[in-house]
Each structure stands twice: as C-alpha cells, then as structure tokens.
Amino acid sequence: MTEIKIDQLKKFLSNFAYNKPKVEKKIELTELTYKKAQSATTGVCGRKTSNICVILFFNGKGQGLLDQYIPLVEQFKNDPITWTYI
User: Fold this and answer.
1) Residue 53, SS3?
2) Domain contains 12
3) Which of 6, 70, 80, 84 is the most exposed place for a label (fewest CB within 10 A)?
4) Alpha helical stretches, state H, 1-86
5) How far apart are alpha carbons 2 and 15 in whole angstroms?
C-alpha cells in the first residue's frame, strides 16, 4: 500500500472541491399545450417530473414577447426549472 502525504492529498482534492461544475444547459421556453401536459412522466410539468414548473401567461403573440423573458430564464439556467408559456 502506498502512503500519501497530506499535502499531496489536499492538492489532489482541491482540484475537485473548489471548482464549480460546468453545466451547459440549453435555454428553453416551450409552449405548454394539452398534449405536452398529459404525459405524467415525460411531459412538461407532469406530476412525476422533477423540475419546478414556471408557467408564464402571455396576453398577445409574437417572438418579441418571448424574447423579453430570455434574460430571466438565463439567470436560472443551472437550476432545475422548466419554463413554459401559454
């Protein structure tokens, strides 16, 4: 059995302990439809999905309406949140 000195062990573990994990998550704002909400396991905002579901209610149409919420979605991109809109 090889003996490891405490300084070597600290150096080795500090590489993992002090680095933030880099998670690249796709920023997504999907339309919530009846069909997407029906599947409990694979659907958006289903009973068995693990994410928090945020539903935005829009009064109007157009991509410009969606674009104004992209900065908000980006702030929470590493959190377990599903963003949908109606």
Assistant:
1) strand
2) no
3) 6
4) 6-17, 34-38, 63-67, 70-75
5) 21
Q: State if pTM tops 0.70.
A: no
pLDDT, mean over the chain: 77
Is residue 64 assigned to a domain? yes
What range does the domain containing 64 cover?
25-85
How many structural domains is the chain composed of?
1
Is-contact 56 84, C-beta < 8 A?
yes
In a domain, 61, yes or no: yes
What are the distances in angstroms from CA 55 to CA 2, 48, 58, 73? 56, 17, 10, 12
CB contact at 8 A, 73 and 29: yes
Phi, psi of 4 (to 5 degrees): -110, 130
Q: Which residues pair with 81 in a beta bridge?
A: 52
